């Protein structure tokens, strides 16, 4: 099927690999022009070129989500280069292990600066763009199954994702008057390089084999398997579409049945 643009523009942070790349590819297939924003410009560029580059409705932008100015500049470039702005997906994040006794001021500041502050900057930058363009829009951020229930060994990561959910609920109330919806998607265990690194680290810290590390995160999945990035991207596609226009302030779990609300 030939690629047909829908006249809308989306920016995805952390779009150069893993879940972010799958979101980029899905939204592009849905007809969005996509700005692939990533700290690693090389991976972002490779994804953009795969989708046909600017002529094909895809550009790569280097961004450090912990830096407010960098996030604002990325959104401004998406507007100027792609001719509009309708959706931001605040997907970038890191997930290191954080044994309780080993948490430091520096580790707190680093994780929150990326996982939480990056979402705040993304929301602010999107709101500025939406208002300037004179229309509403959709803000979609990455929460996590670990932002619905605390997971062992990743206390700081869980804390950042609980914070993202809380901020999203307030933003949804504050921004509804401007026609802006604000939601999160909450993946469980997804087959990504980040998850593989986390499982290996958990096993190494415990002096166990790698398979033990995976079991710490995959036990209790009702559907009996970890998810693929494309399955998470499908939910983001829904949140970016008009089908979700009456949904705001929500966190949609995509975890195969790990947490039930």
TrEMBL record:
Superkingdom of the source species: Bacteria
Transmembrane segments: none
Enzyme class: oxidoreductase
EC number: 1.1.1.304
Single GO MF descriptor: quinone binding
Residue stretches making up the Ketoreductase domain: 8-217
Catalytic activity: (S)-acetoin + NAD(+) = diacetyl + NADH + H(+)
Keyword Oxidoreductase included in the entry's annotation: yes
Signal peptide from the UniProt entry: none
Matches recorded under InterPro entries: 23BDH, KR_dom, NAD(P)-bd_dom_sf, Sc_DH/Rdtase_CS, SDR_fam
Keywords assigned by UniProt, alphabetized: NAD, Oxidoreductase
Binding residue positions for NAD(+): 17-19, 38, 64-65, 91, 157, 161, 187-192
Keyword Oxidoreductase: yes
Active-site residues, Swiss-Prot/TrEMBL: 157 (proton acceptor)
GO biological process: acetoin catabolic process; fatty acid biosynthetic process
SMART domains (alphabetical): PKS_KR
UniProt record similarity statement: Belongs to the short-chain dehydrogenases/reductases (SDR) family.
Protein name, entry field: Diacetyl reductase [(S)-acetoin forming]
Species per Swiss-Prot/TrEMBL record: Nitrococcus mobilis Nb-231
């Amino acid at each position: 099927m030939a690629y047909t643009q829908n006249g809308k523009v989306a920016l995805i942070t952390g779009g150069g690999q893993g879940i972010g790349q799958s979101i980029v590819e899905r939204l592009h297939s849905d007809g969005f022009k996509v700005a692939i924003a990533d700290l690693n410009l090389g991976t972002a560029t490779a994804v953009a070129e795969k989708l046909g580059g600017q002529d094909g409705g895809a550009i790569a932008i280097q961004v450090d989500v912990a830096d407010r100015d960098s996030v604002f500049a990325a959104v401004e470039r998406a507007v100027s280069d792609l001719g509009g702005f309708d959706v931001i997906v605040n997907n970038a994040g890191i997930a290191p292990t954080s044994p309780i006794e080993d948490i430091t001021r520096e580790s707190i500041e680093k994780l929150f600066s990326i996982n939480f502050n990056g979402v705040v900057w993304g929301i602010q930058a999107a709101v500025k763009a939406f208002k300037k363009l004179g229309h509403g829009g959709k803000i979609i951020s990455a929460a996590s199954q670990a932002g619905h229930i605390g997971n062992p060994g990743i206390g700081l990561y869980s804390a950042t994702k609980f914070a993202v959910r809380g901020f999203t609920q307030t933003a949804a109330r504050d921004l509804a008057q401007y026609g802006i919806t604000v939601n999160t998607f909450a993946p469980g265990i997804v087959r990504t390089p980040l998850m593989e690194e986390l499982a290996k680290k958990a096993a190494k810290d415990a002096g166990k084999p790698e398979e033990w590390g995976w079991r710490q995160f995959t036990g209790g999945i009702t559907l009996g398997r970890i998810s693929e990035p494309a399955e998470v991207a499908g939910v983001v596609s829904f949140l970016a579409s008009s089908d979700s226009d009456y949904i705001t302030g929500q966190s949609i779990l995509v975890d195969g049945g790990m947490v039930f609300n």
